[in-house]
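User: Before I run my own analysis I want an independent prediction to cross-check against. Here's the chain; please return only the structure tokens and, at the end, one sentence I can use as a sanity check.
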Amino acid sequence: MSVDLLCLGEPMLEFNQLPSDPDGRTLYLEGHGGDTANAAVAAARQGARVGYVTALGPDPAGDSFIALWAREGVDSTTVRRDPGRQTGVYFVFHGPQGHEFLHYRANSAAAAYAPEDLPEAAIAGARILFASGISQGISTSAADAVFAAFDLARRHGARLAYDTNYRPRLWPPSRARAVMEAAIAQADIVFPGEDDARAMLGLTEPDAILDHYLRLGPAIVVLKRGAGGADLATADRRLHIPAHPVAAVDATGAGDTFCGAFLARTLAGDTPEESARYANAAAALKCTGYGAVAPIPRPDAVRALLAGAPG
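Assistant: Structure tokens:
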């Protein structure tokens, strides 16, 4: 296995609520989700060489992910099939306040993943290793696996990237903050979410959030602000990137698309600003379709949107 970006986390089969049919029945679109899994596909669609590390059940949902990754060019040779556990499933509901999730992940194959399951050779060969708060929040063993993977990657010279992606149903904010910040202290690139910072830190001002995460040690912090765009910060520069106006119908996976696109463009040699502007456009386009994965755009569409954006 030889990839540039290796993502670690929890894939989940997705059922995304669609507008009701003429008889008023609720319809669901079957697809794929899981934050770092979405990011892996987003990066692959932008041309990066990507691999995924996780465990799946020996079930149709797991088979569906293996088939997805084969189509998308995501290397799945480091994906374990756990004969005693199942692949997680989640539902997405849409309402006046945006999208809401209902997850069925207890005792899933991904949640049982542990440090001893890690593929050291694959981690040693990656240029960037990417994980998230969800990667760690699903279980103690999964949290330990991320720390062990980060240690391995750092020893082999890889860069580390981390998305906070806080989920209150997984763990309380105090514990989530402690675990995430221990991981972020090792990371080179961090993608906090605006809502995550409000919940875990009690901070609302973008500059205060950026200051907080820069103090932990990352060289690059990109604050994802949803419809508010994004803010990029390094030790010597800050930049606000406005959101692109699009006909949005579903924001599921938009932040994951941002992360995957940013990392793909970073691997391609773009500057942090170029990567962030590209990722911001990719995330906007993802919101124009239902589902976390299917609407993730390819480079031609992203470049077209960027070409039409104000200077």
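Sanity check: The mean pLDDT is 95.
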